[in-house]
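## Example record

The block below lists the input lines for one assembly entry, exactly as stored, with component labels intact.
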Amino acid sequence: MNRMKSWHMPLAVVFMAATILLAGGFAVASNMGFKLNKGLVKTGDGQIGRNWTSIPYNSPYGTFGGLCTQTGLPTGPINTAGITRLDGTPGGRGFVFQTCNAAVGAGCGEPLVAGEGVQIQVPFGLCSGGGQLCAYTSAQCIAVGNPTKCCTGAGTGPTCPASSCPAGQTCAVNLSSIIIVGSHNPSLQITTPHTGAGQVGNYWFAVPYHTTAVTLNDVCVQAGMVSGLAERLDPITGNFTTPLCPSTQAQSINLVLGEHIRLRHPPNGVSFTPAHF
Amino acid sequence: MLKMRKVLIPLVVAAAGVIWAPAVSAQCTASQPFGDFGRSYIDLCRDDKPVDALVTALGSPATTGNANVICESADEIGIQGGSCQTEAGVVGDGRVTISGNYGNQGSLGCPDPNGIAGVGRNVYVIRCNDGAGVVITVGYNVNLGVFDADGAHKVDPASPTFDPLPLHAQPKGVDPSGLATGGQNLVLNNLAPGPPPMANVTLYDPTVFSDCDPDSVGTARATGSCDPAADGGGVLASSGNLYVTTGSCAGTAPARTVCNGGSSAGLPCLNNSDCGTNALCIPRWQPALTDVPQPLIAPATTNVTLPISACVGGSNPQSPCTTSANCGGLCSAGSRLGIACTTTAINGVCQGFCSGTGPKAGLQCTTTALTGVCQGTCSGGPTPGAGCTSTTTCGTGGTCVAVTCSPWPCTLGTCSALNSVAFNNQCVYLGSTFTFQSTESPSIVSTPLAFSGGGPGAPSARALDVRAAVSGGEIMIHFRTAAELQLVGFNVLTETKAKGQFKVNDSLIAPRGVGGGGATYDNVPIGRGKFQGGRTVIIESVLTDGTTLRSDAVRF
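Predicted structure tokens for the full assembly:
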């Protein structure tokens, strides 16, 4: 299962340590547990703001609702985050989406599955009147100078709206990061599903926070994949990168701490125990 | 050259729906990659400059528009598919790969939303720097979850695992069966400057590499991407329909329709919903006027009358026109700035703004009435200047005077000659579509013919009447130009089987035309050894914006 080349270990440790330090010192590796300050990109066009998120194999969250409340994601009736998991098993449910509001309202909501990542989407913010969401603030509006969102300045039109909110209201911007806590389960075996139409065969692999893998290709090799796909989604650009797995192309795509990736291995899937340090 | 997006209401369900639901015809909501997933590539494709590609999905309106989906090198950045395959090599090595994703930015429409076999068959038309290219079609590979272009490659007979061979982008021409090879199925025979300018063209059916071919990787590996029900027996062929448009010689949109205003103005669209509120999806390419009824039955030769005017400004910029009414207008101020319009009026598209300095000043309005957005201001009485909606609210002696709703301007476009100063290096493009199972592609996929240099009705810096003759150890070259607007100089090219097309002059040949006028070039000598066995001469005109115009090839 763990086929990582021996020279990769110290490199991976150095990389992970550096990444953790760069993350602001919130992520602390330990044998017992860790916490990570994970940045969130607000929901935008296309896939922008689709935050693919690794959930620790042992975590206190348990459910969508738990994840929402314990990380402080917005749970209001209008201002609510959205959580998605992917059930790619044949005959499975495909994308399972629930707003934090619905999850909390239902008690706990959908269960989280150990080894799987989830997608978190957060609206930009809520107008101070509480009646509607906003897409930008007045300051952003001016900075961007986007004529489709607001006026371009004095003399060319109406006074610039305070924000995308009704007159007199301001836009209260949602959080831009959450603290994720948990610990690793080194004995957990990952099994990607048999492939089929649509989402069948796709697996959102929660990359362990203490993984020894550095690139997508490292995961491919560790998982023993032969001719599959690995995929990262950049929440800022909203673009997928989908190399063959394994491949030299996949070697050039780094994993990002706290992000899950998609794996697909036709036709029968693959089983592996993720390597970690 | 052809490198070529919500209303919130206070209800939980509705709000969630608005936030999470994708726009109609937007990019796929999940990843749907396409490209080379078999470790192969296209070769013999000159790629020292960006290689063009047109992408369409048959039976589906999906396209990647002007997005860059061709990797000239493995380390290329900004590719629509996220990153490039190692097999793309380096720039200039003639190897390219396809890398795209219908779930990424730059994609419009989703060819196969449910990821099932037999839906949204893809077509890729690649055009290399030398005009050669290749046409590829593949269906959805359910197992891998991608549109795998390598499924259309020929099988390596030496491979027990049916690995793909590289796909050749050469030769460019017509094979004995009458099919166009090298990706160029629309060929220019002659161009008469007119007026009216007339292009004589021949349309061929293209040679197409398909995963349904018996000797393809898709068939050998039984990937299932060639769906027996949807694809069986289907042949990708020229539709016989020709289309024209105008645009910058440095690039044009492959989509037949674009948005006429708003934040998506000029972007490819499939229907009005792609263009947002108050904008329409309008034709960017128009049916060509031919002397042979369309659809043509390929191979077929016809004369095409080319447009001589296009819109400047308005809601249909750069599109062919005959009158300014064809060009529409755009709101040039107000909160509807950039929205398509035809008239300046408060009850028109642009609406108006509340004038004066009252509490409603500047707000968008549609009527001058106390009951409207602008309401009124008190004149006289105890609260002069205060906002009001009726005289009663102004107190004794006061009257409520309605605030005027003044119209925002709708600035109309004009129809101008292509060879006028209104345009800079404007081209006319002539292209065609494909059909598969009787369905016409929604995009122009025949690599368009470009007629450039200020328009076909205007003189062009393209070299004409090229001749070449052997004289001792040199090749003496003769040519002329009708005009040399925006011309930097000329290169002389030749072509060999081994090297393809390459330059034989040491430095640019300086232009001789005065004031943009034409000139004659006689006895331009090039050492015979420079041709390295090449027996053809092509004159390449290099323009100030970096684009080039190539003459017909002549032999010596």
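Residues 352-407 of chain B form one domain. The two ends of chain B are 31 Å apart (CA to CA).
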